[in-house]
């Protein structure tokens, strides 16, 4: 696991610029680093040694002739098989998967290589023979890759926004459309970033850059389909899922450094730990984070799993002052991210580094097996539309809305079309006209905040609305928030995270399961839960789902209230030229007075203002603790 950066340009790139870019991602690769100038191309690299710990595995790496170069971040899980195919015609100098990519490119070409490899990756190949730069990102978006085309003859790229900024001739402006997307979704969705001109390469895409050609357009090399369903008897279904999951875990156990797992106490991470225990034949090092507030604490469920499989468990409680690290956490993201679980994820990754270098986790279980409420509600709504006569739907919808939280969700879904019900609604989507000032609204007059999710819905396939939800979430919420959060948090502490439930073969299999088998009634993740009965205590499987939920609303009304007010006054001041100060302050006052719950929205604005002070004003040091920010807030106001 590493950090990579580079540039192809006619201008001379000073070594100091490359060194600054490498330093901005030191945390991603503390074991070794190098910069390289090769004519029009230059590279910066930091390495976290995972496989083949010798210097022979360091990067940038070239082929035997020194005319094809690569910088690579990630793991190729089937590299040993590919290496055996390549060894008769190529000389290998290391035992790394990196070298397999170089020789695979020489043997099969760039797109042929992408079709063959399986893993999590972001890499750049520079072919001096033809003057072409190629960038690629893995199928689900586990590993990040950003790029900027400054002119037809210049492109820069990096693993992080921070490292990329060091390579650019000038700092770009904030993109108002991307900012609007952040305020809608609480994260900036790919291919946009918060900076105009900086792009995130989408998952399962690549670009090819020739100097002087038209700007490169991302091209897709893999597409998951939900359209080809195959009904199987349940025993056969569970047997195949079990086999694929065990293979997925086995492929992710290859490492020359200490390896363990995150254990949250949920089904996904629990089944991964159980299979790891069986395969290694020894206790797994597990890391669990809990909370003092029993409403959010799941440690007792994690203990049940750890006891059953005799894991060496390491428990931590989220420090009450973890929120003080928010400036540093936001700096690591490089752009605003308002998922409040960035706090516990950052903390558990820091704890993991005390024991292991590689951790397996349960990411992807909800997407693969239908663990969220939205596909379940979409399925129920589609059935209701089919069964209920059009003249009775309004009255039926009102009655359904009286049947608790799930009834309310179904009632809301029935009030609109399936595509509109899919749209994400956590941020400012429903009140943006009150939030923005007149000039900002004018700039955004032709911007539809829902367009990103509409596009995902259009490109999703499958025979039911629930299938389309699963397909669309796999390309939106998963990479833009969940996988970004895991990569940033773990790599901030030089830890590599691997996700067996996001194995390509496993996901391709679950996409073929008919929705009525994948979920039954109001039971989410039916197939995975039935499979988990072989490995996980019943009490862990069949309980209410919690997730990494934090009491952000109460924070805003207690310890964070004074600082929140200062930050929001700065954000809505004239210097920002974005928001109506009266509306922002009304939201805060109504929240503090318990007349409304604006916790999520206020948190989104707090994160944004801290990001502004870090990256736009550059008045805030990332190591400043939140409790000591009053001076920075006043300076920015």
What can you tell me about this protein's structure?
- The strands form three sheets. This protein has a six-stranded antiparallel β-sheet with strand order 2-3-1-9-8-10. It has a six-stranded antiparallel β-sheet with strand order 4-5-6-7-11-12, covered by helices on one side. Strands 15-14-13-16-17 form a five-stranded parallel β-sheet, with helices on both faces.
- The protein is globular and about 75 Å long.
- The protein folds into three domains: 2-220, Aminohydrolase, N-terminal nucleophile (Ntn) domain (Glutamine Phosphoribosylpyrophosphate, subunit 1, domain 1); 223-546, HUPs (Rossmann fold), CATH 3.40.50; 552-636, no CATH class.
- The protein is built from 29 helices and 17 strands.
- The mean pLDDT is 92.
- By secondary structure, it is an alpha+beta fold.
Structural class: alpha+beta
Query: What is the CATH class of the largest domain?
Result: Alpha Beta
Low-confidence stretches: none
CATH superfamily of the largest domain: HUPs
Rounded to the nearest angstrom, the distance between the terminal CA atoms is: 40 Å
Fraction of residues in H or I helices: 40-55%
Task: Count the DSSP helices.
Answer: 29
Tell me the number of structural domains: 3
């Amino acid at each position: 696991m590493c950090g990579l950066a580079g540039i192809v340009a006619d201008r001379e790139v000073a070594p100091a610029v490359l060194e600054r870019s490498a330093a901005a991602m030191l945390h991603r690769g503390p074991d070794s680093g190098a910069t390289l100038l090769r004519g029009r191309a230059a590279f910066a690299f930091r390495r976290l040694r995972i496989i083949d710990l010798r210097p022979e595995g360091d990067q940038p790496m070239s082929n035997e002739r020194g005319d094809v170069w690569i910088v690579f971040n990630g793991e190729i899980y089937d590299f040993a098989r590919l290496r055996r195919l390549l060894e008769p015609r190529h000389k290998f100098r290391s035992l790394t998967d990196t070298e397999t990519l170089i020789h695979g490119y020489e043997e099969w070409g760039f797109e042929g290589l992408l079709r063959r490899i399986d893993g999590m990756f972001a890499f750049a190949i520079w072919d001096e023979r033809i003057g072409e730069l190629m960038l690629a990102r893995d199928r689900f978006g586990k590993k990040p890759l950003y790029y900027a085309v400054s002119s037809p003859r210049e492109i820069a790229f990096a693993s992080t926004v921070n490292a990329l900024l060091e390579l650019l001739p000038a700092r770009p402006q904030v993109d108002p459309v991307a900012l609007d997307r952040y305020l809608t979704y609480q994260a900036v969705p790919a291919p946009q970033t918060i900076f105009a001109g900086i792009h995130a390469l989408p998952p399962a895409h690549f670009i090819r850059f020739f100097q002087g050609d038209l700007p490169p357009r991302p091209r897709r090399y893999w597409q998951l389909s939900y359209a080809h369903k195959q009904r199987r008897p349940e025993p056969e279904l569970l047997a195949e899922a079990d086999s694929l999951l065990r293979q997925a875990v086995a492929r992710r156990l290859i490492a020359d450094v200490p390896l363990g797992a995150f254990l949250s106490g949920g089904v996904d991470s629990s089944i991964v730990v159980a299979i790891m225990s069986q395969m290694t034949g020894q206790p797994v090092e597990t890391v669990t984070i809990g909370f003092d507030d029993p409403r959010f604490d799941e440690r007792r469920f994690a203990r049940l799993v750890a006891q059953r499989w005799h894991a060496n468990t390491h428990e931590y409680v989220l420090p009450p002052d973890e929120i003080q690290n928010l400036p540093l956490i936001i700096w690591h993201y490089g752009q605003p991210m308002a998922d409040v679980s960035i706090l516990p994820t950052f903390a558990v990754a820091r704890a993991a580094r005390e024991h292991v270098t590689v951790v397996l986790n349960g990411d992807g279980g909800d997407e693969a097996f239908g663990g969220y409420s939205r596909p379940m509600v979409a399925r129920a709504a589609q059935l209701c539309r089919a069964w209920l006569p059009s003249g009775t739907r309004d009255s039926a919808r009102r009655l359904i809305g009286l049947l608790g939280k799930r009834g309310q969700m179904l009632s809301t879904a029935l009030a609109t079309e399936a595509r509109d019900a899919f749209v994400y609604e956590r941020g400012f989507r429903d009140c943006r006209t009150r939030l923005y000032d007149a000039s900002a609204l004018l700039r955004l007059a032709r911007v539809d905040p829902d367009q990103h999710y509409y596009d995902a819905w259009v490109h999703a396939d499958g025979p039911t609305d629930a299938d389309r939800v699963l397909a669309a979430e796999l390309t939106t919420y998963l990479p833009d928030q969940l996988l970004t959060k895991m990569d940033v948090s773990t790599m901030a502490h030089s830890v590599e995270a691997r996700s067996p439930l996001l194995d390509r073969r496993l996901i391709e299999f679950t996409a073929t399961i008919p929705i009525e088998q994948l979920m039954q009634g109001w039971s989410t993740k039916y197939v995975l839960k039935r499979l988990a009965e072989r490995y996980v205590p019943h009490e862990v499987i069949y309980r209410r789902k919690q997730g990494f939920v934090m009491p952000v609303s109460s924070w805003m009304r207690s310890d964070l209230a004074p600082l929140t007010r200062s930050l929001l006054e700065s954000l809505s001041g004239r210097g920002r030229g974005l928001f109506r100060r009266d509306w922002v302050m009304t939201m805060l006052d109504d929240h503090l007075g318990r007349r409304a719950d604006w916790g999520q929205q206020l948190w989104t604005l707090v994160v944004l203002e801290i990001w502004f002070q870090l990256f736009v004003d550059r008045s805030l040091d990332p190591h400043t603790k939140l409790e000591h920010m009053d001076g920075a807030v006043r300076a920015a106001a």
